[in-house]
Amino acid sequence: MDFTGRIVVVTGAGSGIGQATARLFSRLGAYVHGADVDRGSVEALVAELGEERAAAHELDVRDAAAVEAFAVDVFARGRGVDVLHNNAGIGHAGEIEHTTIEDWDRVIGVNLLGVAYGVQAFAPRMLEQGRPASIVNTASSLGLVAMGRMAPYCASKFGVVGLTEALHAELAPRGLHVCAVCPGIIDTPITRNAVLRGTPGERREGIAGFYGRYGASADQVAGAVVDAVRRNRVIAPVPRSQVSPAWWAKRMSHRTGQVIARHMPRVVLGRGAGT
Predict the structure, then answer these.
(1) Are 157 and 180 in contact (CB under 8 A)?
(2) Over the Cα atoms of the chain, what is R_g?
(3) Whole-number Å distance between alpha carbons of 18 and 15
(4) Among this protein's residues, is 211 annotated catalytic?
(5) Widest CA span in the chain
(6) What is the pTM of this model?
(7) Can you tell me the distance from the alpha carbon of 11 to that of 21, in angstroms, rounded to the nearest whole number?
(8) Arithmetic mean of pLDDT, 241-246
(9) How far is CA 33 from CA 36, 42, 267, in A?
(10) Catalytic one among 31, 117, 153, 211?
(11) Mean per-residue pLDDT over the chain, rounded
């Protein structure tokens, strides 16, 4: 697939996976609308890519009216949208007794409802274009296999995977491909900026170090996003060698999935952090 002249929209484009995806689509010839709650970060990205190749938008994906206005603005420019990457997301970890209602609201609001609002604002307009298009939603390996101490995050990402599968079944026959990209351990700022409570909060430096040592790059995820669009994938784990074994093990046996969920915190948080 040639992306020259295509229009790509990326939320959470100011850093991490979103920034890498915006850069890659731009290199492949697309015009990129980059959106982020931090306007300065997307303005810096546009300065890097060039104003003739990209536009910056300030956007809080938790605000449904703002997402709708964003879609109106993009489509008002008259070129439609070929790829929407609903990528904006936040991290959270902590024992349930240390987790707050505000944590649930924030994580679900950004990670799940932010995707839903993006779909609701863009999908009907993309269907009316009369040409094939794609929506890629950033989920997580923790949307495929659960992990203890991360209930709100897993709930949000499992929701993204389910939303994606349902929408693809509905929309693919009408020319709109929908995919969930499911990153595993990725070295991005989301780990350092996540809300960590209880034991994870005490081990923040160790967690960041673990992701720094063993995490794949945001560029690798961006490549998986482009590949998912080109190949019409529905679920795209990345890196496959890291995510797929646990996913397949869980699909073979839910009991095995529970073993993984209980013991994964020891891997990420260190010994003594098992559930």
Answers:
(1) no
(2) 18
(3) 6
(4) no
(5) 56
(6) 0.95
(7) 10
(8) 94
(9) 10, 9, 37
(10) 153
(11) 95
Core vs surface per residue 2-34: b (16+ CB within 10 A) or e: ebeebbbbbbbbbbbbbbbbbbbbbeeebbbbb
Q: Is the pLDDT of residue 193 over 90?
A: no
Q: Which of 196, 220, 218, 219 is nearest to 268 (CA)?
A: 196
In angstroms, the Cα distances linking 16 to 13, 33, 56, 57, 124 are 8, 16, 16, 17, 28
- Cα separation, 157 vs 97, whole angstroms: 21
Q: How is residue 246 written in tokens?
A: 């646990």
Predicted pLDDT at 270: 61
Q: H or E segment at 180? A: strand 176-183
Do residues 160 and 116 make contact, with C-beta atoms less than 8 angstroms apart?
Answer: no
Cα–Cα distance for residue pair 101/56, rounded to 1 Å? 32
Structure tokens at 91: 């991290």
Instruction: Quote the tokens at residue 51.
Output: 């104003």
Q: Which amino acid appears at position 237 of this protein? A: P
Q: What is the mean pLDDT of residues 9-15?
A: 98
Distance (Å, whole) CA 36 – CA 40: 9
Q: Classify residue 96 by its DSSP letter.
A: G
Q: How would you list the strands of the sheet with 176-183, edge to edge? A: 54-58, 31-36, 7-11, 83-86, 133-138, 176-183, 235-238
DSSP state for residue 112 in the 8-state scheme: I
